[in-house]
Amino acid sequence: MIEQTGARADGAAAEPTRSGEGPQPYPLTPLQHGMLFQSLRAPGSGVDVEQVVCTLREAVDEDGMRRAWTTAVSRHDVLRTRFAWTGMPEPMQVVQAEAAPDLAVHDLAGPGFGGGLERWLEEDRARGFDLARDPAMRLALFRRATDEWVLVWTFHHVILDGASVAHVLREVFALYDQDADAELPARRPFRDHVAWLRERGSAEDEAFWTEWLRGVSAAEPLRGARALARDPAAEPPSGVREMRLSLPATAALRAFEQEQGVWLSTVVQAAWALLMGRCTNRRDVVFGAVRGGRATGMDGAEGMVGMLINTVPVRVLLRDDARVIDWLDELGDRLSALAEHEHAALSDVARWSGIAPGAVLFDTILDYQPRPFDAELGGAWTARELRVLRRTGFPLAMAVTGETPLRLRLDYDAEHFDAVSAERMLERFATLLERIAEDPDQRLGDVDPLPPRSAACCCTRGTSPRRGSPPPAPICWWRSRRRGRRTRSPSPAAGSA
Residue 89, exposed/middle/buried by CB under 10 A (0-12, 13-18, 19+)? Predict the structure, then answer.
């Protein structure tokens, strides 16, 4: 819960309303509430501050770019939103009636940029946002040459998820490329989603999550494989490693998906659970999964601009004697059942699980995207490059994008992991994906890129490994193994962090 102290990052009080503000304030989603709390608890950490970095190999019309963003900001309340909590029963989102986008223009060859763009990006992330005072986004345009520019869109994750970023970018560049002739779609406001969430009953969610997590224990502190402590002067607080699966391996996974009737998203989550289990010697694994929240949401949710995602616990039991395909079928059924309950607040889920107050259910997260969001942009984006910089606040965050070839990205906390251990973990995750697809009838215990008791494990838990303990009994409502031809159940809703 947010403490009702009225303190802002700069020590001033956050007023609930001001002159020139727009529609009636409205509450936050549970995930937004958690992000706001994290921002207040660790100002300047860069956690949940995201940067979309667009390389534009073209001459840029600065005025045209500003007009395009001004129109986009005027269309979407979330881009004009600040947060207020002082003297209120709960934090609220306050929409400004008007907010001109903050677009700064710089020349990378000019004074003050001796450290280059990457240094500026680091400083910009650390700058963060005063969420009580201003809308949580800003823009910067950098000139490298007459026909090469870089647009940096910095925003706080509390206002936007990945699908919304794609919606906004598509609108901005439609306006920029076509100017006033662009036709933009009508979109339901994000406040409708918040109202829909608050109207949902919780009884069915409570029954589901209580059973899903029966007997689970809280996550133990995750310790990485750093040989030496991080040097703050030489290494940033977080890092990222990326790789692409080979084309043959990607093709094998696609063939496995079609032939075995198992969604690729299920295989990805299974591989992550297996890696976490192998690295920590646990057979009952819980990790956080990012859920999109749109396919199972209200009418019009697919086109909304806002923060619709949620992160929920996925529990996977590792039974060495199970056939891989039977294990995947069971996991797929469970993930399909989870979809109806993916909107539940994580704080409620933790309470229903029975873990101690203040304990956490998971400390790693996985986000699977069927397609990269920039693939949906089209048009002139074939000549534009885009990358996203972020820091999640979790020790490990794996993102998998289902393009060809498959793209893997591991964000890690540099206090726990160094680049070498993160690279090793990423490679082993890729190997597990390949191993799973090799033989659906193999034993789960044989799907492992690591030799037994390898001294080079990627991570450990805060307590001794649980050696020799029997696997937990299956949850009673798991479906029995399918017989005969397998049919694919609806795809679990993908996330869009």
Answer: exposed
The whole-number average pLDDT for the span 379-407 is 87
The overall longest dimension of the chain from CA atoms, in Å, is 70
Q: Cα–Cα distance between 301 and 135 in angstroms, integer?
A: 23
With a CB cutoff of 8 Å and minimum separation 6, the contacts of 203 are none
Q: What's the CA gap between 184 and 177, in Å, rounded?
A: 13
Considering the segment(s) 202-461 as one domain, its CATH architecture is: 2-Layer Sandwich (3.30)
pTM of the model: 0.85
Q: Which of 423, 416, 389, 413 is nearest to 497 (CA)?
A: 389
- Residues ≥6 apart with Cβ < 8 Å to 275: 425, 428, 429, 432, 458
CB 300 within 8 A of CB 243: no
Q: What is the pLDDT of residues 426-459, one digit of tens each?
A: 999 999 999 999 999 999 999 976 544 444 555 6
Domain ranges of the chain: 26-193, 202-461
